[in-house]
Amino acid sequence: MKRSFASVVSGLAVLITLLVTLGFSTTPAKATTTYQIGTDVTFPPFEFANKQNKYVGIDMDLMRAIAKDQGFKVNIKPVGFNAAVQAVQSGQLDGVIAGMSITKEREATFDFSKPYFTSGVVMAVQPKGSVTKLSQLRGKKVAVKTGTSGADYAKSIQKKYGFKIVTFDDSNNMYEDVMTGNSAACFEDSPVMQYGIKQGTKLKIVTKPAESGSYGFAVQKGKNQKLLKLFNKGLADLKANGTYDKITQKYLGTTKSSDSASDRSIIGLLKQNKSALISGFEETLWLTIVAIFFATLFGVLVGLMGVVPSKFMNGVSTTLIYVFRGLPLLVLALFIYTGIPSLTGQKIPAFVAGIITLMFNEGAYIAAFVKGGINAVDSGQMEAARSLGLPFGKAMRRIILPQGIRIMIPSFINQFIITLKDTSILSIIGILELTQTGKIIIARNLEGFKVWSIIAVIYLVIITLLTWLSNWVQRRTRL
Questions:
Q1: Scanning 31, 97, 177, 199, which has the fewest C-beta atoms within 10 Å of its C-beta?
Q2: Are 329 and 396 in contact (CB under 8 A)?
Q3: Topology of domain 118-214, per CATH?
Q4: One fold for 30-116+216-255 and 118-214
Q5: Distance of alpha carbon 362 from alpha carbon 295, whole angstroms
Q6: What is the pLDDT of residues 373-406, one digit of tens each?
Q7: Rounded distance between C-alpha atoms, residue 142 and residue 42, angstroms
Q8: What tens digit of pLDDT does each residue of 244-254 get?
Q9: Distance between CA 234 and CA 365 in Å, rounded?
Q10: For 30-116+216-255, which CATH superfamily applies?
Q11: Which residues fall within 8 angstroms of residue 117, CB to CB, at 6 or more apart?
Protein backbone atom coordinates (compact mmCIF):
# COMPACT_ATOMS: atom_id res chain seq x y z
CA MET A 1 0.00 0.00 0.00
CA LYS A 2 2.75 2.47 0.92
CA ARG A 3 4.44 1.76 -2.39
CA SER A 4 1.21 2.45 -4.29
CA PHE A 5 0.79 5.77 -2.45
CA ALA A 6 4.38 6.71 -3.20
CA SER A 7 4.03 5.84 -6.85
CA VAL A 8 0.92 8.01 -7.23
CA VAL A 9 2.53 10.99 -5.50
CA SER A 10 5.83 10.61 -7.37
CA GLY A 11 4.01 10.29 -10.68
CA LEU A 12 2.10 13.48 -10.00
CA ALA A 13 5.28 15.28 -8.96
CA VAL A 14 7.14 14.16 -12.10
CA LEU A 15 4.26 15.33 -14.32
CA ILE A 16 4.11 18.81 -12.78
CA THR A 17 7.90 19.14 -12.66
CA LEU A 18 8.16 18.25 -16.37
CA LEU A 19 5.79 21.00 -17.44
CA VAL A 20 7.19 23.58 -15.03
CA THR A 21 10.72 22.80 -16.23
CA LEU A 22 9.60 23.31 -19.82
CA GLY A 23 8.02 26.60 -18.86
CA PHE A 24 10.98 27.91 -16.87
CA SER A 25 13.63 26.88 -19.39
CA THR A 26 16.26 29.52 -19.86
CA THR A 27 16.33 31.79 -22.90
CA PRO A 28 18.94 31.00 -25.57
CA ALA A 29 22.07 33.14 -25.55
CA LYS A 30 21.22 34.77 -28.87
CA ALA A 31 18.05 36.24 -27.30
CA THR A 32 20.19 38.95 -25.66
CA THR A 33 19.94 40.89 -28.93
CA THR A 34 16.40 39.78 -29.79
CA TYR A 35 13.64 41.57 -27.89
CA GLN A 36 10.16 40.14 -27.37
CA ILE A 37 7.70 42.90 -28.22
CA GLY A 38 4.00 42.66 -27.44
CA THR A 39 1.29 44.31 -29.53
CA ASP A 40 -2.46 44.37 -30.11
CA VAL A 41 -4.27 42.24 -32.69
CA THR A 42 -7.07 44.61 -33.74
CA PHE A 43 -5.78 48.17 -33.94
CA PRO A 44 -5.34 49.10 -37.60
CA PRO A 45 -3.66 51.14 -39.02
CA PHE A 46 -1.13 50.75 -36.18
CA GLU A 47 -1.02 46.95 -36.05
CA PHE A 48 -2.83 44.31 -38.09
CA ALA A 49 -2.03 41.24 -40.20
CA ASN A 50 -1.83 41.47 -43.98
CA LYS A 51 -2.87 38.78 -46.48
CA GLN A 52 0.37 36.90 -45.82
CA ASN A 53 -0.52 36.85 -42.09
CA LYS A 54 2.45 39.11 -41.35
CA TYR A 55 1.98 41.92 -38.86
CA VAL A 56 2.16 45.36 -40.45
CA GLY A 57 0.97 48.87 -39.63
CA ILE A 58 2.51 52.09 -38.35
CA ASP A 59 3.69 50.57 -35.05
CA MET A 60 5.03 47.42 -36.67
CA ASP A 61 6.88 49.18 -39.48
CA LEU A 62 8.34 51.71 -37.04
CA MET A 63 9.48 49.00 -34.63
CA ARG A 64 11.19 46.98 -37.37
CA ALA A 65 12.76 50.07 -38.94
CA ILE A 66 14.12 51.22 -35.58
CA ALA A 67 15.47 47.72 -34.87
CA LYS A 68 17.24 47.70 -38.23
CA ASP A 69 18.60 51.21 -37.69
CA GLN A 70 19.93 50.34 -34.22
CA GLY A 71 21.16 46.81 -34.96
CA PHE A 72 18.89 44.65 -32.82
CA LYS A 73 16.13 42.15 -33.60
CA VAL A 74 12.50 41.99 -32.54
CA ASN A 75 10.08 39.12 -32.18
CA ILE A 76 6.54 40.49 -32.46
CA LYS A 77 3.96 38.85 -30.17
CA PRO A 78 0.35 39.70 -31.16
CA VAL A 79 -1.28 38.91 -27.82
CA GLY A 80 -3.85 41.72 -27.56
CA PHE A 81 -3.52 45.01 -25.71
CA ASN A 82 -4.44 43.87 -22.21
CA ALA A 83 -2.36 40.70 -22.38
CA ALA A 84 0.62 42.62 -23.80
CA VAL A 85 0.50 45.18 -20.98
CA GLN A 86 0.27 42.46 -18.31
CA ALA A 87 3.04 40.42 -19.96
CA VAL A 88 5.40 43.41 -19.87
CA GLN A 89 4.52 44.05 -16.22
CA SER A 90 5.32 40.42 -15.35
CA GLY A 91 8.53 40.34 -17.41
CA GLN A 92 7.21 37.91 -19.99
CA LEU A 93 7.78 40.49 -22.73
CA ASP A 94 10.46 43.16 -23.05
CA GLY A 95 8.26 45.95 -24.36
CA VAL A 96 4.89 46.87 -25.82
CA ILE A 97 4.00 49.00 -28.84
CA ALA A 98 0.26 49.10 -29.44
CA GLY A 99 -0.92 52.66 -29.87
CA MET A 100 -0.47 53.02 -26.10
CA SER A 101 -1.31 56.51 -24.83
CA ILE A 102 1.14 58.04 -22.38
CA THR A 103 -0.72 58.86 -19.17
CA LYS A 104 0.33 59.69 -15.60
CA GLU A 105 -1.25 56.46 -14.32
CA ARG A 106 0.69 54.35 -16.81
CA GLU A 107 3.93 56.23 -16.14
CA ALA A 108 3.76 54.91 -12.58
CA THR A 109 4.13 51.36 -13.95
CA PHE A 110 5.96 51.80 -17.26
CA ASP A 111 8.86 53.77 -18.67
CA PHE A 112 7.83 55.37 -21.97
CA SER A 113 9.81 56.37 -25.01
CA LYS A 114 9.56 59.81 -26.53
CA PRO A 115 6.14 60.17 -28.22
CA TYR A 116 6.03 58.76 -31.74
CA PHE A 117 2.46 59.73 -32.66
CA THR A 118 -0.17 62.23 -31.50
CA SER A 119 -3.85 61.42 -31.78
CA GLY A 120 -7.27 62.45 -30.50
CA VAL A 121 -10.55 60.69 -29.68
CA VAL A 122 -13.57 60.95 -31.98
CA MET A 123 -17.15 59.74 -31.73
CA ALA A 124 -18.57 57.57 -34.53
CA VAL A 125 -22.23 56.70 -35.15
CA GLN A 126 -24.46 55.05 -37.75
CA PRO A 127 -24.50 57.14 -40.97
CA LYS A 128 -28.30 57.52 -40.85
CA GLY A 129 -28.70 57.45 -37.08
CA SER A 130 -30.36 60.09 -34.93
CA VAL A 131 -27.28 60.78 -32.80
CA THR A 132 -24.97 63.45 -34.17
CA LYS A 133 -23.60 65.12 -31.02
CA LEU A 134 -22.64 64.31 -27.44
CA SER A 135 -25.72 65.91 -25.88
CA GLN A 136 -27.94 63.32 -27.62
CA LEU A 137 -26.31 60.38 -25.81
CA ARG A 138 -28.29 60.75 -22.56
CA GLY A 139 -29.83 57.42 -21.53
CA LYS A 140 -28.16 55.57 -24.41
CA LYS A 141 -25.33 53.03 -24.56
CA VAL A 142 -21.85 53.87 -25.82
CA ALA A 143 -19.29 51.26 -26.93
CA VAL A 144 -15.60 51.51 -26.01
CA LYS A 145 -12.54 49.29 -26.22
CA THR A 146 -10.79 48.15 -23.03
CA GLY A 147 -7.68 50.07 -22.03
CA THR A 148 -7.84 52.72 -24.76
CA SER A 149 -7.83 56.49 -24.59
CA GLY A 150 -11.34 56.32 -26.10
CA ALA A 151 -12.53 54.39 -23.05
CA ASP A 152 -10.84 56.87 -20.70
CA TYR A 153 -12.43 59.81 -22.50
CA ALA A 154 -15.88 58.19 -22.38
CA LYS A 155 -15.57 57.66 -18.62
CA SER A 156 -14.48 61.26 -18.11
CA ILE A 157 -17.66 62.65 -19.74
CA GLN A 158 -20.10 59.90 -18.75
CA LYS A 159 -21.73 61.77 -15.86
CA LYS A 160 -21.99 64.99 -17.85
CA TYR A 161 -23.85 63.41 -20.77
CA GLY A 162 -25.61 60.59 -18.88
CA PHE A 163 -24.84 57.57 -21.08
CA LYS A 164 -24.00 53.95 -20.24
CA ILE A 165 -20.69 52.37 -21.23
CA VAL A 166 -20.38 48.94 -22.88
CA THR A 167 -16.81 47.56 -23.04
CA PHE A 168 -15.28 45.33 -25.72
CA ASP A 169 -11.85 43.71 -26.13
CA ASP A 170 -11.41 44.55 -29.80
CA SER A 171 -12.37 47.28 -32.25
CA ASN A 172 -14.42 45.12 -34.62
CA ASN A 173 -16.91 44.02 -31.95
CA MET A 174 -17.17 47.62 -30.79
CA TYR A 175 -17.98 48.78 -34.33
CA GLU A 176 -20.48 45.95 -34.83
CA ASP A 177 -22.31 46.93 -31.65
CA VAL A 178 -22.92 50.39 -33.09
CA MET A 179 -23.75 49.20 -36.60
CA THR A 180 -26.38 46.78 -35.26
CA GLY A 181 -27.94 49.51 -33.13
CA ASN A 182 -27.13 48.02 -29.73
CA SER A 183 -25.04 51.08 -28.92
CA ALA A 184 -25.69 54.62 -30.13
CA ALA A 185 -22.03 55.51 -30.65
CA CYS A 186 -18.44 54.49 -30.02
CA PHE A 187 -15.32 56.40 -29.05
CA GLU A 188 -12.13 55.58 -30.93
CA ASP A 189 -8.76 57.13 -31.73
CA SER A 190 -9.10 59.35 -34.79
CA PRO A 191 -6.66 57.58 -37.17
CA VAL A 192 -8.01 54.15 -36.20
CA MET A 193 -11.59 55.18 -36.88
CA GLN A 194 -10.63 56.86 -40.16
CA TYR A 195 -8.86 53.69 -41.29
CA GLY A 196 -11.85 51.53 -40.34
CA ILE A 197 -14.23 53.70 -42.36
CA LYS A 198 -11.80 53.63 -45.29
CA GLN A 199 -11.89 49.82 -45.09
CA GLY A 200 -15.67 49.77 -45.38
CA THR A 201 -16.93 50.08 -41.79
CA LYS A 202 -20.40 51.63 -42.05
CA LEU A 203 -19.94 54.40 -39.49
CA LYS A 204 -19.32 58.12 -39.67
CA ILE A 205 -17.33 60.48 -37.46
CA VAL A 206 -19.43 63.30 -35.99
CA THR A 207 -17.04 65.05 -33.58
CA LYS A 208 -13.67 66.72 -33.81
CA PRO A 209 -10.69 64.97 -32.13
CA ALA A 210 -10.73 65.53 -28.36
CA GLU A 211 -8.37 64.66 -25.52
CA SER A 212 -5.33 64.86 -27.76
CA GLY A 213 -2.66 62.49 -26.47
CA SER A 214 0.63 60.92 -27.47
CA TYR A 215 1.50 57.29 -28.14
CA GLY A 216 4.68 55.80 -26.75
CA PHE A 217 6.68 52.59 -26.71
CA ALA A 218 6.71 51.17 -23.15
CA VAL A 219 8.91 48.91 -21.03
CA GLN A 220 8.58 47.74 -17.44
CA LYS A 221 9.44 50.44 -14.91
CA GLY A 222 13.20 50.42 -14.32
CA LYS A 223 13.80 47.56 -16.78
CA ASN A 224 15.12 47.32 -20.35
CA GLN A 225 16.50 50.85 -20.30
CA LYS A 226 18.94 49.95 -23.07
CA LEU A 227 16.03 49.00 -25.34
CA LEU A 228 14.28 52.26 -24.49
CA LYS A 229 17.36 54.30 -25.41
CA LEU A 230 17.75 52.38 -28.67
CA PHE A 231 14.10 53.07 -29.54
CA ASN A 232 14.45 56.81 -28.87
CA LYS A 233 17.66 57.07 -30.91
CA GLY A 234 16.20 55.05 -33.78
CA LEU A 235 13.01 57.14 -33.79
CA ALA A 236 15.08 60.32 -34.06
CA ASP A 237 17.01 58.82 -36.97
CA LEU A 238 13.83 57.83 -38.82
CA LYS A 239 12.35 61.29 -38.43
CA ALA A 240 15.58 62.89 -39.64
CA ASN A 241 15.95 60.74 -42.78
CA GLY A 242 12.25 60.87 -43.80
CA THR A 243 11.44 57.19 -43.11
CA TYR A 244 8.95 58.12 -40.39
CA ASP A 245 6.90 60.27 -42.77
CA LYS A 246 6.90 57.54 -45.41
CA ILE A 247 5.58 54.98 -42.92
CA THR A 248 2.76 57.17 -41.60
CA GLN A 249 1.74 58.31 -45.07
CA LYS A 250 1.62 54.69 -46.23
CA TYR A 251 -1.21 53.91 -43.79
CA LEU A 252 -2.88 57.29 -43.30
CA GLY A 253 -2.89 58.48 -46.92
CA THR A 254 -6.03 58.75 -49.01
CA THR A 255 -5.26 55.69 -51.17
CA LYS A 256 -7.58 52.80 -50.41
CA SER A 257 -5.84 49.58 -49.45
CA SER A 258 -5.95 46.66 -51.89
CA ASP A 259 -7.66 44.47 -49.30
CA SER A 260 -10.69 46.75 -49.15
CA ALA A 261 -11.34 46.10 -52.84
CA SER A 262 -10.88 42.32 -52.67
CA ASP A 263 -13.63 39.70 -52.71
CA ARG A 264 -15.51 40.01 -49.39
CA SER A 265 -17.79 37.00 -49.88
CA ILE A 266 -17.38 34.00 -47.60
CA ILE A 267 -15.78 32.04 -50.45
CA GLY A 268 -13.47 34.97 -51.19
CA LEU A 269 -12.47 35.28 -47.52
CA LEU A 270 -11.79 31.54 -47.39
CA LYS A 271 -9.50 31.72 -50.42
CA GLN A 272 -7.63 34.78 -49.14
CA ASN A 273 -7.09 33.38 -45.65
CA LYS A 274 -6.83 29.64 -46.33
CA SER A 275 -3.25 29.26 -45.12
CA ALA A 276 -3.89 31.30 -41.95
CA LEU A 277 -7.01 29.27 -41.11
CA ILE A 278 -5.19 25.97 -41.68
CA SER A 279 -2.32 27.13 -39.48
CA GLY A 280 -4.75 28.19 -36.75
CA PHE A 281 -6.61 24.89 -36.93
CA GLU A 282 -3.36 22.91 -36.74
CA GLU A 283 -2.34 24.88 -33.64
CA THR A 284 -5.75 24.21 -32.08
CA LEU A 285 -5.50 20.48 -32.80
CA TRP A 286 -1.93 20.27 -31.51
CA LEU A 287 -2.88 22.15 -28.33
CA THR A 288 -5.81 19.79 -27.82
CA ILE A 289 -3.80 16.60 -28.30
CA VAL A 290 -0.90 17.63 -26.05
CA ALA A 291 -3.23 19.08 -23.41
CA ILE A 292 -5.51 16.05 -23.27
CA PHE A 293 -2.45 13.77 -22.93
CA PHE A 294 -1.13 15.61 -19.87
CA ALA A 295 -4.63 16.22 -18.53
CA THR A 296 -5.32 12.48 -18.70
CA LEU A 297 -2.14 11.66 -16.78
CA PHE A 298 -2.93 14.33 -14.19
CA GLY A 299 -6.59 13.34 -13.99
CA VAL A 300 -5.96 9.61 -13.63
CA LEU A 301 -3.37 10.18 -10.90
CA VAL A 302 -5.63 12.55 -8.96
CA GLY A 303 -8.65 10.30 -9.54
CA LEU A 304 -6.83 7.24 -8.19
CA MET A 305 -5.75 9.25 -5.16
CA GLY A 306 -9.44 9.76 -4.48
CA VAL A 307 -10.27 6.03 -4.26
CA VAL A 308 -7.27 4.54 -2.43
CA PRO A 309 -7.90 3.69 1.24
CA SER A 310 -6.18 6.80 2.63
CA LYS A 311 -7.98 9.83 4.05
CA PHE A 312 -4.99 12.04 3.32
CA MET A 313 -4.88 11.02 -0.35
CA ASN A 314 -8.65 11.35 -0.63
CA GLY A 315 -8.42 14.86 0.82
CA VAL A 316 -5.67 15.90 -1.59
CA SER A 317 -7.68 14.57 -4.53
CA THR A 318 -10.87 16.33 -3.46
CA THR A 319 -9.01 19.61 -2.92
CA LEU A 320 -7.28 19.54 -6.32
CA ILE A 321 -10.53 18.75 -8.11
CA TYR A 322 -12.39 21.48 -6.21
CA VAL A 323 -9.75 24.16 -6.85
CA PHE A 324 -9.10 23.55 -10.55
CA ARG A 325 -12.75 22.97 -11.45
CA GLY A 326 -13.71 26.10 -9.52
CA LEU A 327 -11.25 28.46 -11.20
CA PRO A 328 -12.46 30.01 -14.49
CA LEU A 329 -10.19 28.91 -17.34
CA LEU A 330 -9.51 32.52 -18.34
CA VAL A 331 -8.35 33.45 -14.84
CA LEU A 332 -6.17 30.34 -14.60
CA ALA A 333 -4.53 31.07 -17.97
CA LEU A 334 -3.67 34.66 -17.03
CA PHE A 335 -2.44 33.60 -13.59
CA ILE A 336 -0.05 31.04 -15.06
CA TYR A 337 1.13 33.20 -17.96
CA THR A 338 1.49 36.55 -16.19
CA GLY A 339 0.99 35.94 -12.45
CA ILE A 340 3.62 33.27 -11.84
CA PRO A 341 6.37 35.09 -13.81
CA SER A 342 5.64 38.19 -11.71
CA LEU A 343 6.45 36.18 -8.58
CA THR A 344 9.35 34.09 -9.89
CA GLY A 345 10.96 36.35 -12.48
CA GLN A 346 11.05 33.40 -14.90
CA LYS A 347 9.35 33.47 -18.29
CA ILE A 348 6.85 30.81 -19.32
CA PRO A 349 6.28 30.35 -23.08
CA ALA A 350 2.66 30.97 -24.07
CA PHE A 351 2.24 27.45 -25.47
CA VAL A 352 3.54 25.84 -22.27
CA ALA A 353 1.36 28.14 -20.15
CA GLY A 354 -1.61 27.07 -22.27
CA ILE A 355 -0.84 23.37 -21.83
CA ILE A 356 -0.44 23.76 -18.05
CA THR A 357 -3.75 25.66 -17.91
CA LEU A 358 -5.64 22.98 -19.81
CA MET A 359 -3.88 20.18 -17.93
CA PHE A 360 -5.06 21.46 -14.55
CA ASN A 361 -8.56 22.47 -15.63
CA GLU A 362 -9.44 19.54 -17.89
CA GLY A 363 -7.49 17.15 -15.66
CA ALA A 364 -9.70 18.07 -12.71
CA TYR A 365 -12.79 17.04 -14.66
CA ILE A 366 -11.09 13.82 -15.77
CA ALA A 367 -10.18 13.07 -12.15
CA ALA A 368 -13.82 13.51 -11.16
CA PHE A 369 -15.14 10.99 -13.67
CA VAL A 370 -12.26 8.59 -12.98
CA LYS A 371 -13.35 8.57 -9.34
CA GLY A 372 -16.96 8.23 -10.44
CA GLY A 373 -16.18 5.40 -12.85
CA ILE A 374 -14.32 3.40 -10.21
CA ASN A 375 -16.95 4.05 -7.55
CA ALA A 376 -19.64 2.96 -10.02
CA VAL A 377 -18.24 -0.58 -9.96
CA ASP A 378 -20.10 -2.67 -7.39
CA SER A 379 -18.25 -2.51 -4.07
CA GLY A 380 -18.79 -6.25 -3.74
CA GLN A 381 -16.24 -6.75 -6.53
CA MET A 382 -13.44 -5.32 -4.38
CA GLU A 383 -14.61 -7.18 -1.29
CA ALA A 384 -14.65 -10.47 -3.21
CA ALA A 385 -11.17 -9.85 -4.60
CA ARG A 386 -9.76 -8.99 -1.16
CA SER A 387 -11.40 -12.05 0.39
CA LEU A 388 -9.51 -14.17 -2.16
CA GLY A 389 -6.24 -12.73 -0.87
CA LEU A 390 -5.56 -10.17 -3.61
CA PRO A 391 -3.83 -7.01 -2.38
CA PHE A 392 -5.59 -3.68 -3.02
CA GLY A 393 -3.31 -2.66 -5.91
CA LYS A 394 -3.68 -5.94 -7.79
CA ALA A 395 -7.44 -6.05 -7.17
CA MET A 396 -7.72 -2.54 -8.56
CA ARG A 397 -5.67 -3.38 -11.68
CA ARG A 398 -7.19 -6.78 -12.41
CA ILE A 399 -10.81 -6.42 -11.28
CA ILE A 400 -12.00 -2.85 -10.76
CA LEU A 401 -10.19 -0.78 -13.43
CA PRO A 402 -11.15 -2.99 -16.43
CA GLN A 403 -14.80 -2.51 -15.51
CA GLY A 404 -14.41 1.17 -14.62
CA ILE A 405 -12.61 2.01 -17.86
CA ARG A 406 -15.59 0.84 -19.91
CA ILE A 407 -17.71 3.31 -17.98
CA MET A 408 -15.17 6.13 -18.44
CA ILE A 409 -14.39 5.85 -22.17
CA PRO A 410 -17.31 7.99 -23.46
CA SER A 411 -16.46 10.63 -20.85
CA PHE A 412 -12.84 10.70 -22.06
CA ILE A 413 -13.95 11.42 -25.63
CA ASN A 414 -16.41 14.06 -24.45
CA GLN A 415 -13.59 15.70 -22.51
CA PHE A 416 -11.52 15.74 -25.69
CA ILE A 417 -14.33 17.71 -27.34
CA ILE A 418 -14.52 20.12 -24.41
CA THR A 419 -10.74 20.63 -24.48
CA LEU A 420 -10.89 21.40 -28.20
CA LYS A 421 -13.43 24.15 -27.52
CA ASP A 422 -11.57 25.46 -24.47
CA THR A 423 -8.42 26.12 -26.51
CA SER A 424 -10.20 29.22 -27.87
CA ILE A 425 -9.85 30.87 -24.45
CA LEU A 426 -6.06 30.67 -24.77
CA SER A 427 -6.23 33.40 -27.40
CA ILE A 428 -6.13 35.74 -24.37
CA ILE A 429 -2.43 34.92 -23.89
CA GLY A 430 -1.62 35.27 -27.57
CA ILE A 431 -1.54 31.66 -28.78
CA LEU A 432 -2.30 31.71 -32.50
CA GLU A 433 -5.01 29.05 -32.44
CA LEU A 434 -8.18 29.20 -34.52
CA THR A 435 -9.96 31.92 -32.52
CA GLN A 436 -6.92 34.19 -32.38
CA THR A 437 -6.46 33.65 -36.11
CA GLY A 438 -10.03 34.84 -36.63
CA LYS A 439 -9.33 38.01 -34.66
CA ILE A 440 -6.25 38.70 -36.76
CA ILE A 441 -8.16 38.26 -40.03
CA ILE A 442 -10.98 40.52 -38.82
CA ALA A 443 -8.48 43.20 -37.79
CA ARG A 444 -7.48 43.48 -41.44
CA ASN A 445 -10.82 43.32 -43.26
CA LEU A 446 -13.34 44.09 -40.46
CA GLU A 447 -15.68 41.36 -41.76
CA GLY A 448 -16.53 40.05 -38.30
CA PHE A 449 -19.79 38.23 -39.03
CA LYS A 450 -18.45 36.35 -42.05
CA VAL A 451 -15.12 35.40 -40.47
CA TRP A 452 -16.74 34.19 -37.23
CA SER A 453 -19.22 32.19 -39.32
CA ILE A 454 -16.29 30.42 -41.00
CA ILE A 455 -14.61 29.76 -37.64
CA ALA A 456 -17.87 28.48 -36.16
CA VAL A 457 -18.41 26.03 -39.04
CA ILE A 458 -14.86 24.66 -38.66
CA TYR A 459 -15.43 24.04 -34.95
CA LEU A 460 -18.85 22.48 -35.58
CA VAL A 461 -17.53 20.08 -38.23
CA ILE A 462 -14.72 18.80 -35.99
CA ILE A 463 -16.94 18.58 -32.90
CA THR A 464 -19.63 16.73 -34.88
CA LEU A 465 -17.06 14.15 -36.04
CA LEU A 466 -15.82 13.69 -32.46
CA THR A 467 -19.39 13.37 -31.19
CA TRP A 468 -20.08 10.60 -33.72
CA LEU A 469 -16.90 8.88 -32.54
CA SER A 470 -18.05 9.18 -28.93
CA ASN A 471 -21.44 7.67 -29.73
CA TRP A 472 -19.84 4.83 -31.71
CA VAL A 473 -17.44 3.98 -28.86
CA GLN A 474 -20.30 4.12 -26.37
CA ARG A 475 -22.30 1.62 -28.43
CA ARG A 476 -19.28 -0.68 -28.79
CA THR A 477 -18.54 -0.70 -25.06
CA ARG A 478 -22.09 -1.79 -24.33
CA LEU A 479 -21.76 -4.91 -26.48
A1: 31
A2: no
A3: D-Maltodextrin-Binding Protein; domain 2 (3.40.190)
A4: yes
A5: 6
A6: 776 666 666 666 666 666 666 666 666 666 666 6
A7: 19
A8: 999 998 888 76
A9: 51
A10: Periplasmic binding protein-like II (3.40.190.10)
A11: 46, 58, 99, 191, 214, 215, 248
